[in-house]
Specification:
Blueprint (H helix, E strand, L loop, with lengths): L3 E2 L2 H18 L11 E5 L2 E3 L4 E6 L5 E8 L8 E6 L4 E4 L7 E3 L5 E3 L8 E9 L4 E11 L6 E4 L11 E6 L6 E6 L2 E2 L6 E3 L5 E4 L10 E7 L2 E4 L15 E3 L4 E3 L4 E6 L7 E6 L2 E2 L5 E4 L8 E8 L6 E11 L6 E4 L3 E3 L5 E6 L6 E6 L2 E2 L6 E3 L5 E4 L8 E9 L2 E4 L3 E6 L11 H38 L2
Parallel strand pairs: 1-7, 3-11, 21-27, 29-37
Antiparallel strand pairs: 2-4, 4-9, 5-6, 5-10, 6-7, 8-9, 10-11, 12-13, 13-17, 14-15, 14-18, 16-17, 18-19, 20-22, 22-25, 23-24, 23-26, 26-27, 28-30, 30-34, 31-32, 31-35, 33-34, 35-36, 35-37
Length: 463
């Protein structure tokens, strides 16, 4: 039931004598087992909330509840008195109109401010003028506003400028916490926090430290987080790269080169061809190139903010397609074990490589084959029947290749001879001779063994 109040002047006159009498008699009961206690609900209040100082275990047979601000009974700090029999609230000197005392003695504060923080004393007056005292505490925190991050330099240069981030506003009794990429800060040599954690200093920043950065404010009554904050880190340009990676081009092709360098802000590009300035663009295009377009291609990059310059050079070689080669043979019909064959790959191109093919496969050299230093001449000495077949040579440069027509080598041989040059009868005689030698050696070994064992038996018969 909501208590009612009486006019302040009349209530004060009626109860002034009672309070004076209580203070003079100074009766005070020893606390009972169920001691008078006071609880703040909520424990930690936010400015603007309603807070109740809830009374537990009040004694019985009471006449009045009297509330004071502070940790003792002080008439000058008297807030209000609640007369139980009349169910009336009698205001005191500190009564603001936002306080209400309930029939169980609990004190309600409406729309609290930080000035309400502190201790409060409840004096309960019994009908026999004996009293008990309880002490409670009310803690009011400022409701935190959404913080924001300020920065001394939001456009720092990589590896050069330190950055100082500050969590605003500065508020008393507030805990500050920082997050980077949604993670709490870890110990690091490139980070430094102020004593109150409100200021975060970043050293030796890199392009990977853009953020987001967030700060949180906290007190026991509320918590807020700032919007994400990002740094615009200036860097580069790094060493540029030219694409594509190809360095060799065929005459008549179109040359299209692109240059790229990591940079913030984006780099400015220009080109040099054999030291001669070209257009200031990121891409370079030359149609229908010729051998005159061969040379060094330099990409220059510049960052107008960091003031840094970088360059890279690519060598381009433009070649004509190779012409078809031909093979010249010292003799295309030869006799096994008698003749030497010399094959020469004929070409008018320069700066080429030469590869030999046999029966459409890359030629595997044997101990009877020899190539000249430039691979243009193949010598087979002596020729054998397995060397008969189709020969080709291939010439190539980095942009083209061409094979000669097939040259067929015909090797004549005596079918009664093996590839080594011996007749079948000679080979058979060699085999028979080897077998006879083996049999003779076996017989000799057997004879020596029998002789040895016979001698051993004779030695045992002697007396």
């Amino acid at each position: 039931m909501e208590p009612t109040s009486v006019p302040a002047h009349r209530g004060y006159v009626l109860w002034q004598g009672l309070l004076l009498a209580v203070s003079l008699t100074t009766f005070w009961n020893q606390p009972t087992a169920a001691q008078l206690t006071i609880e703040s609900v909520p424990t930690n209040a936010v400015q603007g909330q309603d807070v109740l100082l809830l009374v537990h275990h009040p004694p019985g047979d009471l006449a009045a509840y009297v509330w004071y601000k502070g940790a003792r009974v002080d008439p000058n700090q008297h807030i209000a008195l609640y007369a139980i029999g009349q169910q009336e609230i009698i205001p005191g000197p500190l009564y603001s109109g936002r306080e209400t005392i309930y029939s169980n003695g609990s004190l309600l504060f409406q729309n609290v401010t930080q000035e309400n923080t502190g201790y409060y004393t409840l004096q309960v007056i019994k009908a026999n003028f004996q009293t008990e005292v309880g002490l409670g505490h009310l803690q009011v925190y400022l409701e935190l506003t959404k913080p924001n991050i300020t920065c001394n330099n939001s456009n720092p240069v990589e590896h050069e400028d330190p950055v100082v981030l500050t969590c605003e506003p500065e508020t008393q009794n507030t805990t500050y916490r920082w997050l980077i990429n949604n993670q709490s800060l870890l110990d690091s040599a490139w980070l430094k926090l102020s004593l109150d954690n409100r200021t975060l200093t970043l050293f030796n920043i890199t392009r990977n430290d853009t953020g987001p950065y967030e700060c949180e404010t906290w007190n026991p009554g509320s918590a807020r987080r700032s919007d994400p904050f990002y740094l615009n880190i200036l860097y580069g340009p790094d060493a540029p790269t030219i694409s594509p990676a190809d360095s060799y081009y065929q005459q008549g092709a179109n040359l299209s080169l692109s240059c790229h360098a990591a940079s913030n802000p984006p780099a400015q590009y220009s080109w040099l061809i054999n030291g001669r300035p070209q257009q200031s663009t990121q891409e370079l295009f030359i149609p229908n190139i010729t051998a005159n377009d061969s040379g060094s291609y330099t990409c220059l990059v510049h960052n107008s903010v960091t003031g840094l310059n970088r360059a890279t050079v690519k060598t381009i070689t433009v070649s004509e397609p190779v012409a078809q080669p031909s093979i010249r043979a010292s003799n295309t019909t030869v006799t096994e074990q008698k003749d030497i064959v010399v094959l020469t790959c004929l070409t008018s191109d320069t700066g080429i490589s030469i590869q030999w093919f046999f029966n459409n496969q890359i030629l595997g050299l044997t101990e009877r084959m020899e190539l000249s230093q430039d691979n243009s001449t193949l010598t087979i000495d002596p020729i054998r029947r397995e060397d008969a077949g189709d020969y080709q040579c291939e010439v190539s440069n980095p942009v083209s290749s061409s094979k000669s027509d097939i040259l067929t080598l015909d090797v004549k041989y005596d079918p009664t001879l093996g590839s080594s040059g011996l007749s079948a009868g000679a080979i058979g005689g060699i085999v028979i001779g080897v077998l006879a030698g083996v049999a003779l050696i076996a017989a000799l070994v057997y004879f020596l063994y029998i002789r040895k064992t016979s001698g051993s038996k004779k030695l045992r018969i002697l007396p």
